[in-house]
Write a structure and sequence with these properties.
The chain has no helices and nine strands. With about 110 residues, it is mainly beta. It has a single domain, classed as Jelly Rolls (Sandwich).
Length: about 110
C-alpha cells in the first residue's frame, strides 16, 4: 500500500518510445508494487495505466473525452496503478503524442 515515505523503486525501469500511435507496454516489478513513477523526457504525452494490453491511451478533443492523462514534457508523476505490478502480475502503461515523438520511463515502486 502507498504510505508516507519517499518513493522506493521495486523493479526495473521500462522505457516507452512514444509516437502518434499508442504504444502499450507491460510493467513488471520485483516485489508487489502499487505505485508507478512515470517520467516524460520529451513532448507532451497522454498516458493510460490499465490492467490489459487493450487499455490504450488516446488524445481527447473538444467534446470527445478519451482515456488519456496529460503528462507535460520534462515532468515526473507518481500514480497509484489500478492493478498491482509484481513479477507474476502485470500492469500496462500506454502512451501517445499528438505530434512528434517522446520517451517516457516507468518505474514500479512504493511511496510518494
Amino acid at each position: 500500500m502507498a504510505n508516507n515515505i519517499a518513493f522506493q523503486s521495486k523493479g526495473k525501469t521500462t522505457r516507452i518510445n512514444v509516437s502518434n500511435v499508442a504504444n502499450t507496454v507491460a510493467v513488471l516489478a520485483d516485489n508487489p508494487s502499487n505505485q508507478l513513477r512515470i517520467h516524460n523526457g520529451g513532448a507532451e504525452v497522454f498516458i493510460r495505466v490499465g490492467t490489459s494490453v487493450t487499455d490504450v491511451a488516446a488524445i481527447p478533443t473538444a467534446g470527445t473525452p478519451e482515456y488519456g492523462m496529460t503528462l507535460h514534457n520534462n515532468t515526473s508523476v507518481i500514480i497509484t496503478a489500478p492493478a498491482q505490478a509484481s513479477n507474476t502480475s502485470t500492469c500496462f502503461v500506454s502512451a501517445i503524442v499528438a505530434s512528434g515523438t517522446a520517451t517516457i520511463y516507468v518505474t514500479p515502486g512504493e511511496g510518494l
